[in-house]
Structures are given as structure tokens and as C-alpha cells.
TrEMBL record:
It comes from Microbispora amethystogenes. Pfam families: CPT. This is Chloramphenicol phosphotransferase. InterPro entries: CPT, P-loop_NTPase.
Length: 192
């Protein structure tokens, strides 16, 4: 007998560069949302892979492993939501194929696409302060990550706390646009 999901989960899809504050907002959302959401960051999937064997890969092999890690993450998100779990997804759409794949595998799910913005200057400051990210990584992602032209909700963390961004997101869930950003993007990008 298969598992009888009464409903599919809602997916709050945070998209922003590294250090834009996605994980901090996700942590706050889990505290203030009324139902028990999961925080699903792509970093958690990366952290599950054997570290030493990954370091031994040549550049071509590494690229292939990272691509299938990301494709696997998209499907893990879909699987969790299809089983009825509500999710805060924490991801960087720094390549177009990642968005196209998400549009495909998350089809039929309640996805709220949320842009997490931050100024380049503040990103550089945070990267330096946290010390565990390559300097310039966020700046290099900035243009592509927000290039898709459609969000349901946007926030800017440059001068706003994670708590206030999470509160804004929670309030905005009651007045989402129709059609949703993912549905608009799906018809623009996949059905052309
Ligand atoms: N709204 C904010 N204002 C100031 N600093 C922040 C804010 N959000 C996150 N930070 C800091 O920036 C760094 C990266 O935050 P994090 O939430 O891990 O970003 P991401 O998940 O997008 O990489 C952390 O050191 C965090 O404390
Ligand atoms: Mg993070």
C-alpha cells in the first residue's frame, strides 16, 4: 500500500546569492510560521557527500558530481513536498538549467518563489566576516541569480534583519499573485 498524502506541501523557495541571508531567514521562518516547516538548504545535501573522495576528483568529474548533486536536490525537494511536507528551500539559481529543472520537477506543487536580495558591497563585507566563503563568490553570482524576472515575494537583507524579512514573507503569503511566478516562468521557459 502506498503512502496516502492528504495534501502536497507548500514550498517557500528562497533564491539569492551566497551570503544574501537565506539560511538566516529560513531559521526565522521556522520559528514564526504556523505549521512545522522543514528547512531544506542545498548545503545540507552537499554536506552529505563523502568529503575526501570529492576532493580527489579531477575538474571534469567534479563538475559532473556537482550537477547531479543539484539535480538530486531538486528531486529531494519535490519528493518531500509530494509526501505532504511544508518546506523552506534555500538555494542559489546561479545557472539557468537549475531553474528549468526545478520548473519541471516541481510542477503541480504550491511553490512560492522568493527573491532574497542584498547589495554587492554588503555581500563582500559578509563574505569577509564569515571567512568560510571564497571572496567574490557572491558578486559573481549576482547577475544570473536574479535574472529570471519573476518573484512572488522579494526582500532585501542589506539593511533589514532576518526576523523582519521573515515577517514580511509570512504576511505576504496571504496575498500571493496569480498566476504564481513559477507558473508564469514555466509557460515562458518550458512551453515556448
Ligand atoms: N539581514 C542580515 N543583516 C546582517 N547580516 C546578515 C543578515 N542575514 C545574514 N547575515 C549574516 O551574513 C552571513 C551569511 O548569512 P546566511 O544566512 O548564512 O546567508 P546564505 O544562507 O544566503 O549564504 C552570516 O554571517 C549572517 O550572520
Ligand atoms: Mg546558507
Amino acid at each position: 500500500m502506498s503512502f496516502p498524502a492528504a495534501r502536497t506541501g507548500q514550498v517557500l523557495f528562497l533564491n539569492g546569492t551566497s551570503s544574501s541571508g537565506k539560511s538566516s531567514i529560513a531559521g526565522q521562518l521556522l520559528l514564526i510560521l504556523d505549521r512545522p516547516f522543514f528547512h531544506l538548504p542545498v548545503d545540507a545535501i552537499n554536506a552529505m557527500r563523502a568529503r575526501q573522495r570529492t576532493l580527489e576528483l579531477d575538474p571534469g568529474e567534479l563538475a559532473a558530481v556537482l550537477a547531479r548533486t543539484r539535480a538530486g536536490f531538486h528531486r529531494a525537494v519535490a519528493g518531500m513536498a509530494q509526501a505532504g511536507n511544508d518546506l523552506v528551500v534555500d538555494y542559489v539559481l546561479s545557472e539557468q538549467w537549475r531553474l528549468l529543472d526545478c520548473l519541471t520537477v516541481l510542477s503541480g506543487l504550491d511553490v512560492v518563489f522568493i527573491g532574497v536580495r542584498c547589495s554587492g558591497q554588503e555581500l563582500a563585507r559578509r563574505e569577509k566576516e564569515r571567512g568560510d566563503r571564497q571572496p567574490g563568490q557572491a558578486a559573481a553570482q549576482l547577475r544570473q541569480v536574479h535574472s529570471y524576472g519573476a518573484y512572488d515575494i522579494e526582500c532585501d537583507t542589506t539593511a533589514t534583519s532576518p526576523r523582519d524579512c521573515a515577517l514580511t514573507i509570512k504576511q505576504s503569503l496571504d496575498q500571493l499573485p496569480t498566476p504564481r511566478a513559477f507558473d508564469r516562468l514555466r509557460s515562458e521557459c518550458l512551453l515556448r
